[in-house]
Specification:
The chain is mostly helical and 447 residues long. The protein contains 18 helices and six strands. It has a two-stranded antiparallel ribbon. A two-stranded antiparallel sheet has the order 3-4. Strands 5-6 form a two-stranded antiparallel sheet.
Length: 447
């Protein structure tokens, strides 16, 4: 009888051992990629020499620091990945989910109260007031695009076209016909909605990447028309002298008939800035209220059905043609409202203000905030635009930090900052739909 073989030595828990060679290999690859990316961005640059000619200057110190940081970060991540899963534990633990659900119910109210008191708190800081107006403008744009992308599931890369149509419509109507801002505002929204219908008809049979390509082309067509139709739009020179809005006919001037003199106030240019802030805040809140109401109507439920499965939507007897057209028209109308406000706030518009970068930024706000989530759009716009200003002093490095933050959100929060869905219609009370339930249902696919 042969001796029994020795019992295998007990191993630690699965994944407890760390393969240092594999971790070093991953770190070396990450360092190589960082060197390739940052070599020409950071390590080499052109500067003006003593004679006025451009000379090549090297900055190997900062380049080595970035490469070393990439190596160390990837090595630490590879080592810790075998022992801990703290990102997943941090974002997916039941306690964190419950805490987030409770906090989200109060976060909207806190966010609204803070938005209402911003001009009071920062009245003496013109820079922060202008930043607040910019953030609320992009929140409104995000609300409008959220109808098309978040609710209807139609990937639109040319949303800036409706923004431009609204801005130029207001500028031309106000200058040529002498109408006030409050009369031109709905006209600009109607014209932008008409542009949305024009975009909707060619893309009725398209979906996915093909839809994105066509909408991207539509945005570029609008920009080129604005750039080349000089008799109407002024071409690259743009339109200047756009009329400013008034408070029920009272202009924000220092004259006797101005806003300050009428109410017995000391004249200050900040009065107009505060008024503009509350105007765009009211427009954003109106957009949010209309969107929430539409979600509970049959057209809103048709949008969500179209987003989940277009074939099943057709099988239910829903007219997908009108569903898509209404989504494009409604989203474009709110974009036109935002464009009209942008024109009256700036007093000058040109085609350079409506490039593809604006569409990409608004789309990033919708996706990172959580498609279909109004609160997520507001949070994402505040974080992204506020983050741009916080890192402005770091010049070119702020884009690296911003890109890294977006990658982290996409990896650890793939459904956005606010990923919990709420049922549009319920029998007794509305309940939150857990994210994992939605993901599990979509992963099963059609029966």
């Amino acid at each position: 009888m042969s001796d029994p073989s020795p019992a295998p030595r007990a191993e630690g828990p699965a994944g407890a051992r760390v393969d240092l060679l594999a971790a070093l290999k991953e770190a070396a690859i990450a360092a190589s990629v960082a060197f390739g990316l940052f070599g020409l961005l950071i390590g080499v640059r052109t500067e003006q020499g003593p004679s006025g000619a451009l000379v090549i200057a090297t900055r190997f110190g900062p380049l080595a620091a970035f490469v070393a940081a990439a190596f160390a970060g990837r090595f630490i991540f590879a080592v810790m990945r075998h022992r801990f899963t703290f990102p997943a534990m941090l974002f997916a633990s039941p306690a964190v989910k419950r805490t987030g659900a409770v906090a989200s119910s109060y976060l909207a109210a806190v966010f609204l109260i803070f938005a209402l008191v911003v001009p009071v708190v920062f009245y003496g800081n013109r820079y922060l007031l202008d930043l607040a107006i910019l953030i609320v403008t992009y929140i409104m744009l995000g609300f409008g695009l959220n109808i098309v992308v978040g609710l209807a599931g139609l990937l639109d890369l040319g949303y800036v076209a409706f923004y431009a149509v609204g801005a130029y419509s207001y500028a031309l109507i106000a200058q040529d016909f002498g109408l006030s801002f409050w009369v031109c505002l709905p006209l600009a929204g109607i014209l932008a909605a008409f542009a949305g219908l024009l975009l909707g008809f060619p893309v009725l049979r398209l979906r996915g990447d093909y839809l994105a390509i066509v909408t991207l082309g539509f945005g570029e067509i609008i920009r080129l028309v604005l750039l080349n139709w000089q008799n109407l739009t002024g071409g690259p020179n743009g339109i200047s002298g756009i009329p400013r809005p008034s408070f029920f006919g009272l202009p924000f001037t220092a004259g006797e008939n101005g806003f300050a003199a009428t109410f017995g106030l000391h004249y200050s240019p900040t009065h107009r800035i505060v008024f503009l802030y509350y105007v765009i805040l009211a427009l954003a809140l109106l957009t949010n209220w209309v969107t929430l109401r539409l979600r509970r109507l049959p057209i809103g439920r048709a949008w969500e059905a179209l987003r989940e499965d277009e074939i099943a939507c057709r099988a239910l007897g829903i007219n997908t043609t009108t569903t898509k057209l209404t989504a494009f028209a409604m989203g474009a109308m709110f974009g036109g409202f935002a464009g009209a406000f942008f024109a009256t706030r700036q007093g000058f518009i040109s085609p350079e203000s409506f490039s593809f970068t604006e569409s990409a930024l608004v789309l990033a706000i919708v996706v990172l905030g959580g498609m279909g989530s109004q609160l997520g759009v507001a949070l994402a716009a505040t974080i992204m635009l506020g983050g741009f200003e916080v890192f402005r002093q770091f010049d070119q490095y702020r884009m690296l930090v911003f890109g890294a933050a977006m990658v982290a959100i996409v990896i650890y929060r793939p459904r956005g900052l606010v990923s919990t869905r709420k049922a549009s219609v319920s029998l007794h009370r509305r309940r939150n739909i857990p994210t994992d339930t939605v993901d599990r249902t979509q992963s099963l696919g059609p029966a």
